[in-house]
Specification:
35% helix; 16 helices; alpha/beta; globular; Rossmann fold; eight-stranded mixed beta sheet
């Protein structure tokens, strides 16, 4: 294990270190950690989403360590300073399917010399990875906290003779709307999505600034509510960063919402020097590694694999945390309710945090830390 930092040391809070862990399911995994100086502490694994990094957890790591935990946060497959992944659109797509992402996390646990962790905590696309960790290996992942992306459970088996709705059938209906629309998850699976963002006219820094802004509580048009069902008319109620104009790419979609210089200066949850860390990493790597996750999540092969767990629920203690201004909790109609009633048999609380949108652990880190510690203390 090498002690070399991947990010600028000055950007990490005191008490957080960076290092690399070798031979993690074929990866050389870059991790941040806190609470590493006291042996025997219970471990927490924190998993980031898109377009993010381990760095996204920087504001909650030290407080969780001060509560008595060894906090470990990896750059996941396709991101940051972790290496060994295939970033080619035509490369090894299967390595990004969620069960292999679970293998990555399980291999990290083993490389740390542990047989189990107290909890796995996932935000955004890290949430389904954390959920499947708890579903598949409850002996290792003894509790789970999901953030910003509800988990509705594994896909079921089609009933013989019954024609049901398919998530992939929605696209013609969205394109038939006026104005025509498309779903961002399937757009993210297109060959051009990476270049649309990586080579956008405004540059990666300004693209990310607008993207993070428009999905945060700082954008006052974020007033989320439940949707009735998976129909084009209902999905069209989502902001255009989720259900886009048919002829627009993501960089074009968020560009009109670039915050003013005064708004940028007032954004204390994501300062320009912090944003520069993200911009630098995605300028170096591109976005394709993270976009491969979307290609898998909308593809038939991942659903086929996950049907092995059809009818199974998460039985370890679980909770859900999100920003009150986060549309992400409603983008899959019915998922929030199903998570609480069916997908998690020991569900211990839903926490919607005021003053936060999608980037809840960055926008309101104290509230997130408090909710997590209360959940962990109750285990």
């Amino acid at each position: 294990m090498e002690q070399t930092s991947g990010y600028a040391e000055a950007m990490l809070p005191a008490g957080v270190r960076a290092r690399f862990v070798d031979d993690v399911n074929g990866l050389r995994m870059h991790i941040l950690e806190a609470g590493f100086d006291t042996p025997g502490r219970p471990c927490l694994l924190l998993l980031h989403g898109f377009p993010e990094l381990a760095f996204s957890w920087r504001k909650v790591m030290v407080p969780l360590a001060q509560a008595g935990y060894h906090v470990v946060v990896p750059d996941q497959r396709g991101y940051g300073r972790t290496t060994g992944w295939d970033g080619d659109y035509d490369g090894d797509l299967g390595s990004y399917r969620v069960l292999n992402l679970v293998r990555d996390v399980l291999a990290l646990v083993a490389a740390l010399g542990r047989r189990s962790v107290a909890a796995v905590i996932g935000h955004d696309f890290g949430s389904p990875v954390a959920a499947h960790c708890a579903l598949v290996r409850p002996d290792v992942f003894q509790a789970v906290a999901l953030m910003s992306a509800p988990y509705a459970g594994p896909p079921g088996w089609p009933l013989a003779g019954k024609v049901g709705s398919n998530r992939n059938d929605i696209h013609a209906d969205l394109a038939a709307l006026s104005p025509p629309r498309k779903h961002y998850q399937w757009y993210y699976g297109t060959r051009e999505a990476d270049a649309d963002m990586r080579l956008c006219p405004q540059g990666i820094h300004d693209f990310l600034r607008a993207y993070y802004h428009v999905k945060s509580a700082d954008w006052t048009d974020n007033r989320p509510h439940e949707l009735v069902g998976w129909t084009a008319d209902e999905l069209a109620k989502l902001p255009r960063y989720y259900v886009m104009d048919l002829d627009a790419n993501m960089a074009e979609t968020v560009a009109p919402h670039m915050p003013s210089p005064a708004q940028v200066a007032a954004c204390d949850w994501l300062r320009e020097v912090e944003l520069a860390v993200y911009a630098g990493e995605f300028a170096r790597n591109g976005f394709q590694g993270g976009l491969q996750w979307y290609r898998c999540s909308t593809g038939a092969e991942q659903a086929r694999e996950l049907r092995l767990y059809a009818g199974r629920a998460i039985d370890v203690p679980a909770c859900f945390i999100a920003g009150a201004a986060d549309w992400g909790i409603h983008q899959s109609p019915g998922a929030l309710a199903r998570m609480q009633a069916v997908a998690c048999t020991d569900f211990r609380g839903l926490h919607l945090i005021d003053g936060a949108g999608h980037w809840v652990q960055q926008e309101q880190p104290e509230e997130v830390t408090g909710a997590l510690i209360r959940f962990l203390e109750g285990l």
